[in-house]
Write a structure and sequence with these properties.
- This protein has helices at residues 12-25, 29-50, 56-63, 67-77, 85-102.
- The chain is mostly helical and 103 residues long.
- The chain has one domain.
- Helix 1 crosses helix 2 (29-50) and helix 2 packs antiparallel against helix 3 (56-63).
- The longest helix has 22 residues, at 29-50.
- It is elongated and about 70 Å long.
Length: 103
């Protein structure tokens, strides 16, 4: 994955939290901030997939993970990916009509 330097202003309180997180995780502040950013991006992308706004494949591509990793991440977050019960019901109704029309 390519990286890009982005100048960013953050409130002092977040800077202090990042320093605390870095100390607890035995890492540096920049890494702590990147981890927070990635977690937030993952939650946002999962929301987009759950709403049907982007595909699971595109979401995996954006997060640089596999589709299987994305499903696991969604499961750990309590987010269901894929068709809803209503969408399944509508699909069955359409298939039933198509089958009747061809019979």
């Amino acid at each position: 994955m390519k990286s890009r330097v982005v100048p960013l202003r953050i409130p002092e309180s977040l800077d202090e939290l990042a320093a605390l997180s870095a100390q607890e995780e035995h890492t540096d502040k920049a890494t702590a901030l990147r981890q927070w950013l990635h977690r937030g991006a993952a939650q946002y992308v999962l929301k987009l997939v759950a709403e049907g706004r982007i595909s699971i494949g595109r979401a995996a591509e954006l997060l640089d993970v596999t589709v299987y990793d994305l499903h696991y991440l969604a499961e750990t977050q309590g987010i269901e990916l894929g068709a809803t019960d209503e969408q399944r019901r509508q699909s069955r109704a359409v298939v039933a009509k198509l089958v009747q029309g061809n019979a």
